[in-house]
Amino acid sequence: MHRTVIAGAAGLVSLALVGVFAMDAGTTRGGAEAASSETYRQLNLFGDVFERVRADYVEEPVDADLIDNAINGMLTSLDPHSSYLNPKTFRDMQVQTRGEFGGLGIEVTMEEGFVKVVAPIDDTPADKAGVRANDIITHLDGEPILGLTLSEAVEKMRGAVNAPITVTIVRAGRTEAFDVTIVRDIIRIKSVRFKRDEGVGYIRVTTFNEQTSDGVRDALREMSDLPGFVLDLRNNPGGLLDQAIEVSDIFLEQGEVVSTRGRYPEDTQRYNSRGGDLANGKPVVVLVNGGSASASEIVAGALQDHERAIVLGTRSFGKGSVQTIIPLGSDGAIRLTTARYYTPAGRSIQAKGIKPDIRVLQDVPEEDDIRTTGEAGLAGHLAGEDEDEKGGSSAYVPDDPAKDLQLIYARDLVLGKRTFDRQNPTPTADAGGATDDDAMQPIPN
């Protein structure tokens, strides 16, 4: 069965949910141009280099490692989200999308040779140990990461359940690196949590795995007596595309949810709502920030374009591309960027992100000023249409809900204590002291 997934914020590997659109091995486009004689000459050059390395390198190399790294180098040169999945990594990815896997519980990418935390997953060992978005991991058990690939670094972070690992972290706002000891565990991702929160229904979606849409439906059934809902997608790095479509569909009566457009016109696919708003038209506010990527941006964009929800917070990550997982039989798979996705209004958010209807800034302590690079800040990223190169936006969410200005504002909107006129938006006062990426004032748009 073919399955579509969109990778999370930044080419996430192993410790994170990743995206999949499965294809048969060897499938190629019939109309693709045949390789030129120059292409075959270059392939011969590759063979010559490979044989020279095998014959003359100072130590005998492992042929399989040379080939793996050559394939991965070719793919990673395309964009941050394309890569080679060796058989073990491919098996791990298939397990992860089911919502349970071993590890620390962090979404990670590579930046300037070090592992960068995109976001810790709620209630995992990394989250409980205090790891934060944008932390840079430089050493594992005292050994430097510099020089490792992301897959190699991730492999080192794995290990037996209950086995501790010490990670060395560099954090903005702190002058010195520091060590954090994390005890490995089986990561069981409960992707949806909900509660009655001061008169509104609060639904927190941490990732999009196979249980997400069912979890949102359960939340709406349990809180059907409440006047409206806050859907919190902050620091949600993405996941399965079909789950993003289903979650959007839960709140929509009709219309397009998202479309994907590839290299060729015939590649365009449109995904539509099947009808039936399970929230019965009650007010919905969607929370996003600089850590909201991919599948979360699909949901926010769909509900925003259909004017079904007010989107509130800071600009999202801007990961608007679709990856195809192409199995290679017993040799693993390749993850290849094959399309951009578009919101119902035809907006590509690649390297731009979803701009909230109401921009609300948190009151961020100086030492906790967490700001993502955004897709536009990733080296080699797929260019966006009318791309905004300003970089990322704030991803800070306070631990204390009483200090969460975005959540407080969202609750007030649901309860009617604040209003928003989409047709005649007016500037609102900064809700906090953080510096953000857009205008001097948070103007609804």
What does this protein look like?
Helices cover 22% and strands 23% of the residues. The chain has 445 residues and is of the alpha+beta class. Among the domains are: 101-188, PDZ domain (Pdz3 Domain), CATH 2.30.42; 192-320 and 339-415, 2-enoyl-CoA Hydratase, Chain A, domain 1, CATH 3.90.226. A hairpin with a 2-residue loop joins strand 6 (136-140) and strand 7. The longest helix has 20 residues, at 37-56. The chain is globular, with a radius of gyration of 22 Å. The model is unreliable at 1-5, 7-26 and 427-445 (pLDDT under 50).
Topology:
Blueprint: E1 5-6, H1 37-56, H2 63-76, E2 83-85, H3 87-96, E3 100-103, E4 106-111, E5 114-120, H4 125-128, E6 136-140, E7 143-144, H5 150-157, E8 164-170, E9 178-183, E10 185-188, E11 192-197, E12 200-205, H6 212-222, E13 229-232, E14 239-240, H7 241-251, E15 256-262, E16 269-272, E17 284-288, H8 295-305, E18 310-313, E19 321-327, E20 333-342, E21 358-359, H9 405-415
Parallel strand pairs: 12-13, 13-17, 17-18, 18-21
Antiparallel strand pairs: 1-14, 2-20, 3-10, 4-5, 5-6, 6-7, 6-8, 8-9, 11-12, 15-16, 15-20, 19-20
Helix pairs in contact: 6-7, 7-8
Question: Which structural traits does this protein have?
Answer:
445 residues, alpha+beta, Pdz3 Domain, six-stranded mixed β-sheet, 22% helix, 23% strand, disordered N terminus, disordered C terminus
